[in-house]
Design goal:
The longest helix has 20 residues. This protein is 27% helix and 29% strand. It starts with 21 loop residues before the first helix and ends in a 10-residue tail after the last strand. Helix 4 packs parallel to helix 6 and helix 7 packs across helix 8. Strand 23 and strand 24 form a beta hairpin. The protein folds into three domains: 190 residues, Alpha/alpha barrel (Glycosyltransferase); 255 residues, Beta-galactosidase, Chain A, domain 5, CATH 2.70.98; 132 residues, no CATH class. It is an alpha+beta fold and 716 residues long. The radius of gyration is 30 Å and the shape is elongated. The protein is built from 14 helices and 34 strands.
């Protein structure tokens, strides 16, 4: 391209702009008011410091810095990581130059902006690296353009530069229309770039074509990219928000310029916003699963409020101060396999709520899925307690010779069970070619006083099926039951990855009744099992790409033949560490001791600020209902949680698929052959049953209630 050629006709522009003189064209673009865009930042001194580094050709991406010569080769990567070169070509630094200029009006920033863009135009071939890089670059060029050209008397902007800029933008967008990525977040980025240029530069010859093409393909992209539950199909919360951010920018730009979008676009965006609403932790961050970082997208939700007036989004953004709480306390997204179990929305302080994210879904489209089926994150009282370590890098090479990509993606780096030291699917660069582990959700119940979720992981890498059940007592604690079934002897390692703040603050205490791990704001307790050993292992957490922080891993391991179990209590606390023990208790059926593969029963003793409690938890593993006896309780049902105080009075009772129950030989619940669900707490009873009549006696007073389930307050 001959950069000094600035005389018409300009065949990339439509009439009458194609025949304007270059000086007249520059004046036109500096002063036109025919298109609208988002408000620009006024910049700050901090951007000047960043921009000064760019002037010296010092580029820092992903916590890795390289110093270039003045006439550097754009195509040479000084890093092991291709992502570094990708970020160079995406031109995010152009925005730093623009904001530094907006703040200072120093022409040196404009001069460097012009120099770098012209250098790139002259030396880089069309479509270098891939289309999504082109899409991001176009976005950044257009954004930074607005600092230097519209309504500006910037001396460094000459007519020949504007011609080169417009011609390159036109060529890059034409390239995108012919080379869109097939699907995924990259395609969304590219489509937004096309829509952006079509909207802000209607003077381009093909702008009408670009606009029609982008609107048609944007709707198609939403339809194929979002699952029925509103989650982006790559199943990465971070990339879900990358996509959502581009959708909302398209919505905003279309609204500003009165460009109609298909009505279905609004419906699909709102579904995507609903997932975002639930996935945010009370403290405002999303879980760092599947190639994610520790990010907050609450500012993005503000855009959702602006366009859709959703009171639930407003409630989350304002931390309960405005709007109305979402309709469900806990929420499942079945197509993606993501589930969120949390405390009541109305509990304050809002940011100290309890939160549990559970993954029981496939790897997802693309290459971002980690080998982490049945993985989880949890937080409470304003702290991340058990975390996903994140992604750290996409590179398989490093200065220390370690393939950190493989490590962070592997099963051992997640909060699940590692079988025989193997990943759930064999590792390879990109998407695995071997069968991915099969995810099976067997139950998800969210009720007035408890949540319960159960899932299975079936891997082709080993002959063992991993079943994980999670019981949540809202606002207090979780019980995680892991059952592993397979032939022969296997080594099992249950890993819990703690937050970096737990370094040198975590202790394993061997007690007579079991194992207790104490760390800041969290206790991890297991009953005594002779063959289970526990260790603290040095690990890493990556809150942002390229950042690696030390963090402890708690590992419970055992070698076992046949069905194998781990039962774990996760008890967060705000200030004072409670005294907690967990023990397995025997369960009988008609006087015969039941094997653990059939039923699990735990007694949890808690001494803390709220008093002294004895909690009982029972869960059956088989089909059908049988009568079981344990301690002074007789129970026919699938799931039971019972809390007694020091005097033996029942304070909390949660039961699912219950037929009847007695304590000390005294019948207190009976559904007369039509099993139902019960929640009793704070002296309030909730029932859900199809039984025509049922019997309740919790305070030694017989009450016979004759009614139908439709007349009883339902859990859901």
């Amino acid at each position: 391209m001959i950069l000094s050629h600035d005389n018409p006709p300009f065949n990339f522009l439509s009439a009458p702009y194609d025949s304007m003189g270059s000086k007249a064209l520059l004046s036109y673009f500096q002063n036109r008011d025919t298109v609208r865009h988002f408000p620009l930042s006024k910049g700050s001194r901090d951007y000047g410091q960043k921009a000064d580094q760019i002037i010296e050709h010092v580029f820092s991406f992903n916590n890795e810095t390289h110093h270039f010569s003045k006439s550097f080769d754009w195509k040479v990567n000084p890093s092991h990581d291709i992502e570094w070169l990708i970020l160079l070509h995406k031109f995010y630094f152009a925005n730093d130059l623009g904001k530094a200029y907006a703040y200072s009006k120093n022409e040196k920033y404009a001069k460097k902006w012009v120099e770098l863009l012209l250098s790139w135009i002259k030396n880089v071939p069309e479509g270098f690296i891939n289309s999504q890089v082109t899409g991001r670059r176009v976005q950044q060029w257009v954004l930074s353009y607005r600092y230097f050209i519209p309504e500006s008397a910037c001396a460094e902007i000459q007519p020949f530069f504007l011609i080169a800029f417009l011609k390159s933008i036109h060529l890059q967008v034409r390239y995108l229309t012919k080379n869109l990525t097939a699907s995924g977040n990259h395609r969304t980025i590219e489509l937004y770039a096309i829509f952006l240029v079509a909207t802000l530069f209607p003077e381009l010859r093909d702008s009408d074509i670009f606009l029609t093409f982008s609107i048609t393909e944007i709707l198609k992209n939403m339809q194929q990219d979002l699952l029925l539950d509103g989650v982006q199909k790559e199943l990465s919360p971070d990339y879900h928000h990358t996509v959502l951010k581009n959708y909302l920018k398209i919505k905003e730009l279309a609204t500003l310029n009165e460009i109609p979008l298909p009505l279905e676009c609004d419906h699909l965006i709102q579904k995507a916003l609903e997932f975002s609403l639930y996935i945010h932790k009370p403290a405002g961050f999303i879980p760092a699963v599947s190639d994610g970082d520790r990010n907050s997208y609450l500012p993005l939700l503000k855009k959702g409020v602006e366009y859709y007036r959703d009171p639930h989004l407003l409630y989350v953004i304002s931390q309960g101060k405005e709007g109305s709480s979402p309709p469900s306390r806990s929420k499942g997204f079945r197509e993606s396999g993501y589930y969120v179990l949390r405390s009541d929305w109305g509990e304050m302080p809002y940011d100290e709520g309890l939160y549990f994210f559970f993954d029981c879904g496939p790897l997802g489209a693309g290459t971002h899925g980690h080998y982490d089926l049945l993985n989880f994150e949890m937080s409470a009282y304003g702290h991340d307690l058990i975390v996903d370590p994140g992604r750290y890098t996409y590179s398989e090479e490093s200065d220390d010779g370690v393939n950190w990509r493989k490590i962070f993606k592997g099963t051992a780096s997640h909060n699940t069970v590692l079988v025989d030291g193997k990943d759930q699917t064999s590792y390879r660069r990109g998407k695995p070619i071997s069968p991915e582990p099969k995810a099976v959700l067997t139950e998800f119940t969210t009720a007035e006083g408890f949540d319960f979720i159960a899932g299975k992981a079936v891997s082709q890498e080993y002959p063992v099926v991993h079943e994980r059940n999670v019981f949540f007592l809202p606002s207090e604690y979780w019980i995680i039951s892991d059952r592993l079934q397979g032939e022969g002897s296997h080594h099992y390692a249950l890993n819990f990855h703690l937050h970096p703040r737990a370094v040198c603050q975590t202790i394993i205490k061997q007690r007579e009744r079991g194992i207790a791990v104490t760390s800041p704001n969290l206790m991890i307790v297991q009953p005594k099992v002779d063959r289970v050993s526990s260790t603290i292992v040095a690990g890493f957490v990556s809150p942002q790409y390229g950042v690696k922080q030390k963090a402890p891993i708690i590992t419970f391991s055992q070698n076992s033949i046949g069905p194998t179990f781990f039962d774990t209590l996760l008890y967060p606390y705000r200030t004072n560490e409670p005294d907690i023990s967990v023990e397995e208790i025997p369960v009988y059926h008609h006087g015969v001791l039941c094997p653990k593969k059939e039923v699990t029963a735990l007694k949890i003793t808690i001494k803390g600020d709220q008093g002294f409690y004895s909690d009982y938890f029972l869960h059956t593993h088989g089909a059908g209902l049988k009568e079981y006896d344990f301690e002074d309780i007789t129970y026919k049902g699938k799931l039971l949680f019972l809390r007694k105080n020091k005097q033996g009075r029942i304070l909390n009772l949660q039961a699912n698929h219950i037929d009847y129950m007695s304590v000390n030989g005294h019948l207190i619940l009976s559904f007369e052959g039509s099993p139902g669900r019960v929640s009793y707490q704070k002296e309030i009873l909730h029932c859900d049953t199809d039984a025509v009549s049922f019997r309740v006696d919790l305070e030694n007073v017989q009450k016979i209630i004759h009614t139908k389930s439709a007349d009883i307050k339902n859990f859901n």
